[in-house]
Write a structure and sequence with these properties.
alpha/beta, Nucleotidyltransferase, domain 5, five-stranded mixed β-sheet, two-stranded antiparallel sheet, extended
Length: 359
Amino acid sequence: MPIPPLPVHFQWVAVLLAGWVSRAQAARLEYLEAENRVLRAQLGGKPRFTDAQRRLLGEKAKALGWAALNRMETIVTPGTLLRWYRELVAKKYTSPHTGRGGKQPIAEEAEALILKVARENPHYGYGRIQGTLENLGHEVSKTTIARILRKHGIPPAKDRGKRIPWRTFLQTHAVAAADFFTVEVMTLRGLVRYHVFFAIEIATRRVQIGGIRANPDGAWLTQVARNLCDPEEGFLRHAKHLVLDRDPLYCKTFREVLRSSGVKIIRLPPESPNLNAHAERFVRSIKEECLSKLIPLGEAHLRRAVAEFVAHYHLERNHQGLDNALIDPEPGVGDLEGEVVTRERLGGLLRHYHRRPAA
C-alpha cells in the first residue's frame, strides 16, 4: 500500500528543517577548517602522524571522496589522504602472516629509531631503548630490540658503553679550530693578497669568519679574538679547546685573550699541515666551490663572496661528516609537497633546490 504524501504545510516544515541543518553543518565545517589553519600555523612545518592516525584519516577520507576533500582545508592534501587509504588496503592483503605464535613485522620507523637511539646512546640498555620508543608511540618488546641490534651488528650496552663516538667526544669537550687562508684580489693597485681568518666548531661544522684583512698583525688578531670570545654573542663563548697551528700572528696577547675566556689552546706540532683537518676541509670547500671560480674585484667583492658561501655552507650544503645532513636546515626540508624551486647565490655559482611552501 503506497504511503500517502505529507500535507503541504508539513512539506514546508521539512524543507526549512533541512535548510537549517545544512547551514548548521556548514558553520561547523567552516569552524573546523579555520581551527585546522590555526593549528597548522602553530605546528610550523610538516606534521608527523602515527600509523594509527594515518589509518583513521585515510578511512574517513575514503568515505568523503575526492571531490569533497578538495572543497575542504585538510591538514594534508587530498592525494595524501587517499594514498594512505590505498596503503591501508594494500597492507591488509599483502602483510605476511606466520600463523599462531609467529612474529609480526616491526614498522620501518620503529626499527630505524631503535638503531638511532642505540648508536647515539651507547649506555642505553634494552629497557631504556624500549622506554624511549614508548615515548614516541611505538610498543616494542626487549626481545625484538635485542634481535634488531644483533642483526645490525650492534653489541649490548655493556659493550657499547665502553666506546664513545667521536661526535659525542667533540661535543662534550667543545673543540673548535681556527686557521687562515689567503685570496689574491684584483684592485686598482694590482693583485693584493688578503688573509681570511675563521673558526670552526668541529662537532657541528659551523663556521664564523673572524676577519678579512690585507696586512694582518697581532693587534688586529687580538681584537678578533675578543669578538669571538664575547660572553653574549661570541662564536667561541662555549668553546673549551681551540686547535691552532704555530703561525707567528697568534701572538701572546691573542693567546691571553683566549685563555682568559676559558679557552684552552691546543697548538699543533711544527710542520704538521694535516693535523687541522676540519679547518683545512673548509678551506678546500670554499676555494673549490666558490673562490676559484670567480675573480674578486676589490675587498667588498671578496667579503660578499665569502659571506654568501658561508650562508650557503650553513643552510644549503649537505655535509658528509654530518650524515649528509644540512647544518641549519630551514623549515620544510624533506617535504614531498610543493613546487621545486632553485635559490641562486653569486649569479648562480651556488645553487640550492628546495620546495616552495604551499600557499
